[in-house]
Every structure is written in C-alpha cells, then in structure tokens.
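Support request from a user on the community tier.

User writes: "When I paste my structure tokens into the form, the page sometimes reloads and wipes my input. The last time it worked, I copied everything first. Here is what I submitted, just in case something in the input itself triggers the reload:"
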C-alpha cells in the first residue's frame, strides 16, 4: 500500500465466526493490528457491513454477512523530520536498530520539542515508515533515559511493533545493561525486587514505594570490582538484566541496595566525602561526569519478519570507557 492510497480488506465469514461479536471476529482475522487500532477503524466509519457503513463493535456476526474494512493511508504527524546523525547498527524493511547516544531524548515533549530520536528517525526513514496507528511515525518499542546510551529497536510498521512489543510483555527478550556503581555489591550476584512509583517529594524522581507502586525486578551480576577495600573508595562494573521495564528502574534499584550508579545526577551524585577517598585521576574523571554510567549493551529478540533470533551488541561510549579505565588503573596501583 502506498502512503496516498487506501487498502481494502474483505473478510470471508467462517462458520466459527457466526454468533461472535464483530470486534472479536476482526481481531481474530486481522491479528496484525492491535485491538485498539481495529476499534478506532470501526468507530471512525471504515467498515462496511453488507454494503453500508457500520460502527457497532458488539454486533453478532451472521452467516452470509459481507464485511469490508478500509485501511486509510497513514497521515503525516506534526513532529518535525530532522537530519540528525544516527549510529545505525542494522536496518531492514521491518525494523531499525540504533545505538542511542547519551544526551538524546527519545520522544518530543515539553522542554524537548525537537532534536529527539523520533525526529531523527523521521528524517532518516522517510517513506520506509509504513504507518502505525494510522500515522506515519516510528514505532518506539521501548525507551532509554535521556542520558542512558545503548542499543534500541524501533519498528517501521504496526505488525512489527506488535510482534516485538509482545516479546517485551512476555519478557522473552535478552536485554543486558552495563553500569558503573559505587561500592562493591555482595554477594556478587543477586536480584532487587521493589515496587516503583513517583518520589513523594521530587516528581522528577522515582522511588521504591510500598503503596501504589508498579512491580519491578532487576537482576545484577558483578563483572569487576575496583578500589582499595575502603568502601567509599570502592566501585564495580555490573551487568543488569530487567525482569520488568519501569522508569529509572536500574538507577532506583541499585540505589535502594546502596550501590547507586556513578555519575547519576538524580540518584548517585558523588559526595565530597566519597571523592576524597578516590585517587586523583579517578576523582578528576568522576567529577567530569554529567550523566549516569549506564549503557544498554545487548539486545536479542525474534525478528518480526524472518522469525529468526537476532542479537545486537554495542560497546559503551567514550566517557564510560574512560571512567572504567581510571577505575581499573586505581585498582592496579593500590
């Protein structure tokens, strides 16, 4: 379907459809579209029943009914397409894999109306975006915080978006993060399970809460330990895996167990007391950091078109590697 032409879909009624609700029959026969998308198509008058426009989702389908669904061409959204450089790891007709830079916001919003990943994707993908929810836009399957770097998958069409989103919902993907944290977690491997909600005093922060929080679970594993043995001069390189995907989840969970992410301006800012226990070189490097040392390093999932497992891995950016090298040097000299 071109972006200026409507697509038409004729439903062939089966015996098993008779007596079922219209919206349910549509969902069964057209499972490449979400139920909310099918509902909006129906209520917006894009379905003809026996030759006449029909909008009732509760109608019970009858034997001999003729159902024709019109899929309007996707419309352009108001979001500005911008020529912003992207680090593209892979691209095909269904998906695009990017290594998101630290400092880049994913979605336009108040305070960040442009210069975002979505703006960049609109500029880069152009006509290869097939339309999602009736709009020409990239399908953001998951998000990374503004100052978290690393690998992301973006869908180019609604079928791919729904297919990958289901894997996220089922937690069947392989997603691993690297982080530099304060202290040296013990035991070296474990999990943090704490519900997350908005901080009661600072609405920009999340916090572990008892009431009205969303269930969240993070697995962590220490890859390297750094420091002299003095806790305030200790740090670690850890690998984290998400069992859930909540806002700021790794950052809050590691803070909750006393090992906040180095450089984190909200949860892990270095105190003067901690800095004085570090070597001069490490203190200099840590003091320069203006973001959390958190990096989405790997992502593996079943491809929506080929149905084969695909895996992507990207090294951390320069600031992360520089801080890591300084911590290793401090440990070697201790």
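"...and here is what came back when it finally went through:"
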């Amino acid at each position: 379907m071109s972006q200026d032409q409507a697509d038409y879909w004729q439903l062939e009624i089966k015996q098993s459809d008779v007596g079922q609700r219209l919206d349910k029959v549509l969902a069964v026969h057209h499972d490449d579209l979400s139920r909310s998308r099918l509902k909006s198509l129906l209520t917006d008058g894009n379905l003809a029943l026996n030759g006449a426009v029909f909008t009732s989702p509760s109608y019970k389908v009858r034997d001999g009914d003729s159902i024709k669904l019109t899929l309007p061409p996707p419309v352009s959204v108001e979001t500005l397409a911008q020529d912003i450089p992207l680090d593209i790891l892979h691209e095909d007709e269904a998906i695009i894999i990017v290594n998101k830079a630290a400092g880049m916001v994913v979605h336009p919003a108040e305070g960040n109306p442009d210069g975002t990943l979505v703006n960049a994707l609109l500029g880069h993908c152009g006509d290869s975006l097939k339309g999602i929810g009736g709009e020409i836009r990239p399908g953001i399957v998951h998000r990374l915080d503004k100052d978290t770097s690393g690998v992301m998958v973006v869908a180019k069409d609604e079928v791919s978006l729904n297919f990958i989103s289901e894997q996220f919902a089922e937690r069947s993907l392989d997603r691993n993060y690297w982080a530099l944290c304060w202290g040296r977690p013990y035991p070296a491997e474990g999990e943090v399970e704490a519900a997350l909600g908005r901080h009661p005093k600072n609405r920009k922060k999340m916090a572990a809460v008892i009431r009205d929080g969303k269930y969240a679970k993070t697995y962590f594993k220490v890859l390297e330990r750094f420091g002299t043995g003095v806790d305030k001069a200790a740090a670690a390189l850890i690998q984290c895996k998400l069992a859930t995907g909540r806002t700021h989840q790794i950052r809050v969970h590691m803070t909750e167990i006393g090992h906040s992410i180095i450089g984190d301006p909200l949860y892990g800012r270095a105190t003067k007391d901690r800095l004085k226990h570090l070597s001069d070189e490490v203190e200099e490097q840590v003091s320069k950091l203006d973001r959390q040392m958190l990096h989405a390093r790997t992502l593996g999932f079943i491809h929506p078109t080929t149905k084969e497992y695909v895996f992507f891995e990207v090294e951390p950016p320069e600031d992360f590697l520089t801080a890591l090298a300084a911590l290793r040097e401090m440990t070697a000299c201790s």
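Agent notes: The reload is a front-end session timeout and is unrelated to the input. The chain has three domains: 7-73, 76-170, 174-333. Helices lie at 22-29, 35-43, 117-125, 158-170, 249-256, 272-275, 280-288, 318-333. Escalated to web team.
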